[in-house]
Amino acid sequence: MRRIKLSGRERCVLKAIGFAEGAAGAELLEQTQMPPDDLTDVLNALLAAGYVESKPYREQVNVAEIPPTNFEVNPGYVHELRDSMARAWI
To answer: The domain containing residue 19 runs over which residues?
Structure first.
């Protein structure tokens, strides 16, 4: 198992997405209270790493595509991401 290292912003976005149901982009904008450009950068990094998936599928998102897009954690990384987030709070 590889160890995943997340930034604080990535942890914040993953926490807002949740590990069970996912979240709409509009909810992420509201919950994270991040500037849209910053949220776009974080989401694109998580999408590129494969940790997060979007519906409809996108390799990258721009600011205008965030609100109508749904995001969920890739089920293949759930355990590793939870472990990484738990280590961050120790």
So the answer is: 8-88
The count of structural domains within the chain is 1
Task: Tell me how far apart the terminal alpha carbons of the chain are, to the nearest angstrom.
Answer: 20
Looking at the domain assignment, is residue 2 inside a domain? no
H or E stretch at 52: strand 52-55
Q: Is the pTM of this model over 0.70?
A: yes
Taking residues 47-64, what's their average pLDDT?
A: 96
**CATH number of the domain bearing residue 53:** 1.10.10.10
Helix spans in the chain (H): 8-17, 25-32, 36-49, 78-88
User: Which segments of 1-45 are extended strands (E)?
Assistant: 23-24
Joined tokens for residue 75: 């089920």
CB atoms within 10 A of CB 43: 25
